[in-house]
Amino acid sequence: MKKMTLALLMITVPLASIISPFSFAEPVDKIELSTQQASQYSVSVSSAKREIALELSRQYARLLPTLQSNINQYNLAMDANLAFKSSGSDTKKLRQSELAIREAKGLYTHTKSKINTDLKGSMEPNLVQFRLADASMLSDWQQGESPLFAFEPDGDDKLWANIEAYDVEGNIHLLDVYQLPQRPVIVIGLDKQQAMREGLAVMRDTFALSTDSANLSKRSISQARPQISSFTTADQPISTTVIKQISVQDDEEPWVSGKAEIYGIVTGVNPSRDEPALDIIEMPYLDYSGTEYYPNQIVIHWERYRWAAADLVLMEHDDGTNYKDLATALVSIAERVLQQYPDPEVQGYAIIATITNEILNALPDAWFTNDDDFVDVYYTLQEGETYTNHHGAGGNARAFFAPLVIQPR
C-alpha cells in the first residue's frame, strides 16, 4: 500500500514568501489545542481497537463461520458489529469501544447533524471493520490457518517500531511495519470512508454554525448562512471549477493502514463580508497513489469566493483526528489572519495564500503524525482558468482543473 504524505516544511516557510510577497500579517500562534491533547486522541482510538482485537481473539471460534461467509476475494472487509451479532456473540464491549472511538474523533455519538440533512434522524452507522490484510492471505485462512489480529499503533507511522497483533490464545506478536506477514492477519480498523464522511459532516456543521454565530447580531439566522450570489438564481449560470484528472506520487505506507481516503479543504474569503470561506470536498475515489483518476468533480463554486480566487489543500484521513477540534481550529486560524488586515482589498487575493499557509503552519505537529496527513496544496486557483498537468506546490499531486459553467434549465 502507498502513503500520500509530504513533509510540511516544503511549503510553510519558502512558499509563504513566494506566493504571498505582499503579506504583512504576523504569524499566527499555535492554537490552544496542545500536541499532547491531539496525541491523546490517537492513543484513545488505538487503545479502543486493541480491546476489540483481544475480544475478537477470545470469540474467534464463534465468529469464524460468519467471517468466512462474508470476507472473500470481492470484499476483504466486513462490519464488526454484524460479525458479532450474526454469530450470537456479546456486542457490549464492541459498542463501548466504538463509542470511545467516536468521542475521540469528535463524531456524533448519535447522528444528529444540525446542518446536513443526510445524517438526521437515525442511529449512527457502525465504524469498526474486520479486514483481511491482503488478498494473498485469503486461501490459507479459508483452509484453516489461524490468523493474527492486528491494529494500527498510535503516533507517527514513520516512528512505528512494529505492529502489535494477538493470536487466538491472546499472545502478543510483533510484526514488521512494512513487510506483509506470511501468516493471515485480520486488521481491526475503521471504515475509513464512513468515518471521513461523518467527520466532514461535523466540520461542515462547525463551519456553518461559526458563520451563524458571528453574524447573529447583524442579520437573522437564515441570512447568516453562507451567502449565495445571483449566480445561483434560476435564470443565471453557475460558475465552477472541476477536477478532470488527478493523481499523487508514491510513498510507502504500512500494510496495516489499508487504502487512503483523501479530502480537500478550499480556503478563501467571503465575497460579501470580511470573513474566511472554508469548504470541505469529499474525494472518495482517490484511494491509491500512482493511479490516475478522472472524477470530473466540482471542487469550487465561485460565488462563494471573493477575487475569483481560492486555494485547495489536499488531506488524507487517518484514524486519530478529532474533526470537531480540527474544524474549530481551522475557523479560528483563518479568522485571526483576516483580523490582521484592516483593509483586505488592499492585499487582494494574496491574503488567501496567507490564510492557507497559517492553517498549515499553526496547527500542532500532532495533527500531521498519524492523524489526518497533509498531501499537497494548490495556491491561487482562479475562476475561468484551465490548469493542465498542474502540480501542487509540494510536487506530490498532479491535476487537470477546468472551468465549468452550469446553465439554468
Automatic annotation (TrEMBL):
Which InterPro entries would you find in this protein's record?
Answer: DUF3103
Q: Which residues form the signal peptide?
A: 1-25
A Pfam family this protein belongs to? DUF3103
What highest taxon heads this organism's lineage? Bacteria
Keywords on record: Signal
Q: What is this protein called?
A: DUF3103 family protein
The record lists the lineage as: Bacteria, Pseudomonadati, Pseudomonadota, Gammaproteobacteria, Alteromonadales
